[in-house]
Amino acid sequence: MANHTHDVLGIGNAIVDVLAHTEDDFLIANQLAKGSMRLIDETEAERLYGAMGPAIIISGGSAANTTVGIASLGGKAAFIGKVRQDAVGDVFTHDIRAIGVHFETHRSVEGPATARSFILVTPDGERTMNTYLGACQLLGPDDIDDTLVEASKITYLEGYLWDPPDAKDAFRKAAGIAHRAGRKVSITLSDSFCVDRYRDEFRELLRDKTIDILFANEHELKSLYATSDFDSALAALRQEGALGVVTRSEHGSLIVSHEGTKAVAAHPIETLVDTTGAGDLFAAGFLLGLARGIDHENCARMGALAASEVIQHLGARPQTSLKDLAAESGLTIS
Amino acid sequence: MANHTHDVLGIGNAIVDVLAHTEDDFLIANQLAKGSMRLIDETEAERLYGAMGPAIIISGGSAANTTVGIASLGGKAAFIGKVRQDAVGDVFTHDIRAIGVHFETHRSVEGPATARSFILVTPDGERTMNTYLGACQLLGPDDIDDTLVEASKITYLEGYLWDPPDAKDAFRKAAGIAHRAGRKVSITLSDSFCVDRYRDEFRELLRDKTIDILFANEHELKSLYATSDFDSALAALRQEGALGVVTRSEHGSLIVSHEGTKAVAAHPIETLVDTTGAGDLFAAGFLLGLARGIDHENCARMGALAASEVIQHLGARPQTSLKDLAAESGLTIS
User: Fold this and answer.
1) B281 — phi, psi (to 5°)?
2) Is B56 within 8 Å of A56 when comparing Cβ atoms?
3) Which terminus of chain B, N or C, has less C-beta within 10 A?
4) Nearest-CA residue of chain A relative to B65?
5) Domain spanning B6-13+62-112+137-328, CATH class
6) Phi, psi dihedral angles at B243 (to 5 degrees)
7) Chain B residues touching residue A88 (CB < 8 angstroms)
8) For the domain A6-12+62-105+137-328, what is the CATH code?
9) What is the pLDDT of residues A9-23, one digit of tens each?
10) Which of B57, B67, B95 to probe the A interface (max A CBs under 10 A)?
11) Alpha helices in B13-134 (DSSP H)
12) A182-209 pLDDT, tens per residue?
């Protein structure tokens, strides 16, 4: 399966999302920081599920969502992540394969259950995530398939991989294989609290050229450079060798390199329902464009289009063909 | 819990829905009759799930959806239905309780798994259902809580209860208790194929006055009276003692009694996404209005409003407060 070329290989936490609308009061009563992702254990997962409203269940996981977006856009994608052999693992596996993503990571047969993220969506469309990592904690270097990395134009990794114990070793192994094969390596910083936890390590990844393409939103970028001033953070990013892609919600995105900074507008939407997956889907469009040799501005337009679909309904997976949607907007991938 | 009054007690199959968008070609290739519900076994469930696209998982079940709609409208509702003690049963139980529906039916600890319905939604918004009844097959008269029926102004039963072996006995038991307590009994015909299977029994329920309020759509009503002529079917319905409520999708609804027929318009929508649950939510609004003594036309308006919310997103459970939505439209329940 790995001997044909993939546009993108995503490596990340394999998670099924449990999403519910909630009022801001619920976040306050449960001391949850709006817009963030916090890690929870199984006991807290049960407590929170019991307290939250009726939910809908949709496969998620940041890098996994990105590979699904790429497949929906008509690209070829693969994913590495760990689920257990249980009912939730069946759901994750079905959904990612059903859209055509190559997913063959060995499933654990014992130990913690497949990961779930309990996502609370407030009336402003913002999502607050509570993640039980479960089986994701078992992802390690042995799960990295060398030939799959070599056969993928871009290997894309999520910052959240720093949370489980051995996944960062899997990350480093994959990055090494990719570079030796002349491939590109990309990372998303995932979440400003995640950057707080691993700031030095993420900056080291940039300094030592492990990362060719960096995705971040404003909060994550400011956290990375430990500054409250966005322009200072941008200036610092320009000094790195990497291509920076900074997403700014309704203000669009910035493409940042040592050559300068280019702004690209957001894609118009009718109603914001749920921002879950916005960054993941932006990365999907941008990375597929990059893998196919499209210029950076059109990569960002493709990213904005993919993000616009996913924020207009609950859940982080597209509910319509992004390829058709892109064609309607005059954006095509060849 | 049963000693305060419920507006409506729903009795039905307790099902979790697995919904996926699909093209018409998929229905044709799998020989599925669009818009219908067919019963499948576990082997076919696995085959179909493997063949269908990425899905979202949301609690469902026709009468269960109705009770959830009533709770969302601010009413008091209870539900009787059978799930097993498994992961899918946990999802069903969480969701229905989380919105405030009283649900205490004894869960089975062995035997078939909790029911799932694999629902294929075509681009026209029509849904085609493939239901594995699982644990629903264990629902029987012993599950009917006498005091709960007595404490509920209306007992609402789905025609689908004729499919599992003993649920119709539960249905008859509940109807008897309700009438002896001076309460009303209502049924939805569920599906025209279901009416084909049990036509004589459903007509007998009307003849012997087991049913006070009948919900049906055009296809089901024509099937009930074995005629292709809608006006003939309406004329036959007018001869029954029951109050008839006939839903006609975008053409609104008809309130049919021996006094005559009254048409009420549909509630306007922006985009039809998925008709799953349209009839269930119409019944929710109508029945709550009826339980609160509102006139039939306003009952139908409340039903149309509830249906309009649920057909604008995937899944048969409301994603916003129907009470707030009703208030915005000037419809209030006191």
Assistant:
1) -75, -30
2) yes
3) C
4) A54
5) alpha beta
6) -80, 125
7) 87
8) 3.40.1190.20
9) 999 999 999 999 999
10) B57
11) 24-29, 42-51, 62-72, 87-98
12) 999 999 999 999 999 999 999 999 999 9
